[in-house]
Write a structure and sequence with these properties.
With 196 residues, the chain is of the alpha/beta class. Strands 3-2-1-4-5-6-7-8 form an eight-stranded mixed β-sheet, with helices on both faces. Helix 5 packs across helix 6. The protein binds 5-O-phosphono-beta-D-ribofuranosylamine. The site of 5-O-phosphono-beta-D-ribofuranosylamine (GRF) has 13 residues, from helix 1 and helix 6.
């Protein structure tokens, strides 16, 4: 059974979808939900599901990324994860941290990568007049939002879509895509999952 640690920063709706998917004959189970915000609502949900939780507040480290990551590594390595999922985790991780989990850390990003790495993806897709938009799951490498694609889900941009309405529809796709990719990834299958 593969052990999966999930990193979150807030509500953790993607984490919830992942946790709910890991049941019955699924080859993985959540071993930790870890947040950079001790007040993240996702921590309460995870604890309610019996998943071990931990939090390391990034704010006291005031931009000393390495010191923060050294603290973050303690509960993460103690959980002995086989796979690390970033799910709405809003801190940029250094190459040193990422390299410790090379090939077994994945992330979901709300765009059709390689388009729109970084933030404000929905507004950028609208501004560009894209007819399609969506989300991607990729292996995490030192370069931001740049690793090999493990899955993509796409939808049609509709007349009158705003960044908010688009974000809401993409988020629903994320909740389908991420569990599907994790299930495949946990079996060592890197064939991309394509939805829509
Ligand atoms: C959402 O914008 C999602 O697109 C991105 O992270 C944000 C929060 O996700 N992956 P979650 O609800 O915390 O999973």
């Amino acid at each position: 059974m593969k052990r999966v640690a999930i990193l979150i920063s807030g509500g953790g709706s993607n984490m919830r979808a992942l946790v709910e998917s890991m049941t019955a004959d699924h080859p993985a189970r959540a071993c930790l939900v870890l947040s950079n915000d001790p007040h993240a609502a996702g921590l309460t949900y995870a604890a309610g599901q019996g998943v071990p939780t931990a939090a390391v507040d990034h704010r006291p480290f005031r931009g000393d990324r390495t010191a923060f990551e050294q603290k973050l590594l303690e509960p993460l390595e103690a959980a002995e994860p086989d796979i690390v999922c970033l799910a709405g985790f809003m801190r940029v991780l250094t190459g040193d941290f990422v390299n410790r989990f090379a090939g077994r850390m994945i992330n979901i990003h709300p765009s059709l990568l390689p388009k729109y790495k970084g933030l404000d993806t929905h507004a950028r897709a609208l501004a560009a007049g894209d007819r399609q938009h969506g989300c991607s799951v990729h292996e995490v490498t030192a370069a931001l939002d740049d690793g090999p694609i493990l899955g993509q889900a796409r939808l049609d941009v509709e007349q009158g879509d705003t960044a908010q309405s688009l974000a809401a529809r993409v988020l629903k796709l994320e909740h389908q895509l991420y569990p599907a990719v994790l299930r495949r990834f946990a079996q060592g299958d890197r064939t991309p999952v394509l939805i829509g």
